[in-house]
Amino acid sequence: MALKLSRLVGTSPIVDGDGKPTLTFVRYWQTFAEQIERAINAIAEILGITDDLDKAIKRAQAAAAEAKDAADASAAATAATKREQALVNSYIDPDTVLSASPTTITIAAHSRMYADGTSASVNGGTVNATAAGDADYVFYVDPERDGGTVTYQVSTTPPTQTGDTHVVGAVAIPTTGTVDGGEGPRRPGYVSPNKFNTVPDE
Q: Is 38 inside any structural domain?
C-alpha cells in the first residue's frame, strides 16, 4: 500500500495572533509525524525480518552442508568397510602356491579373488626362508590391489589380511629337499600351520 501523507491546507493559519501554533496545525503536524514514524518503523521491521531471514538461510545452508559432510563420511566409511571385508575374505586360486627348500620359498603365479567379485593376477616369485623347522608365513602388500609383480615377505608369526596385507600361505621349512606349502588363505585370511606338508618330495 502506497504511503500518503496528510496535506497542509494552504488557507489554514499556522500560528495564531500570539505567534503560537494553531490547534489545526498542531493536529496536522501530529498526524504527519505519526505517519512518518509508522513508515520508518515499518521499514526497520522489514529490514529486521530480512536480516532474520538471511540468518535463517545461512543456518539452513550450514545444516545442509553438515548433513552432506555426514552423508559423505558415512558413505566413505561404508566403502572403506566393504573394501576391508573384500580383502579379509579374499583367497587365492589355486589354493596352494608355495614350496620351500631349506633356504628359499618359491611362490607360483596365482589369482587373488576378492570377496567383492574383483580379482587380480599376481606374478610368482621367491623369498628367503627363515630357518629349517620354522613355519614361514608368506604375504605381500598391495595397496592398489592390481596384482602383477609384488614384493613377497616372510613372517614366523601369522599375519592377518587387513589394510593392504595379502596373505599367500604358509610352509614348513625343511632341513633337506623341497616341500609344498599348505593351503592358502581361507576366511578370514588366516593360515593354520597344522595344514603344512612337512614331508619332502621324493
A: no
Calpha distance 112→68 (Å, rounded): 36
Per-residue pLDDT of the chain (202 residues; tens, 9 = 90+): 566 666 666 667 777 778 788 887 778 778 878 888 888 888 878 878 888 888 888 888 898 999 999 999 999 999 999 999 999 999 999 989 999 999 999 999 999 999 999 999 999 999 999 999 999 999 999 999 999 999 999 999 999 999 999 999 999 999 999 998 877 766 455 455 445 554 455 5
Position 107 in a domain: yes
- DSSP SS3 for 9: coil
Q: Determine the structural domain holding residue 128 and report its residue range.
A: 90-180
Cell of 95: 589354493
User: Residue type at 162?
Assistant: T
pTM (2 d.p.): 0.65
**What are the E-state strand segments in 4-118?**
91-93, 98-100, 104-107, 110-113
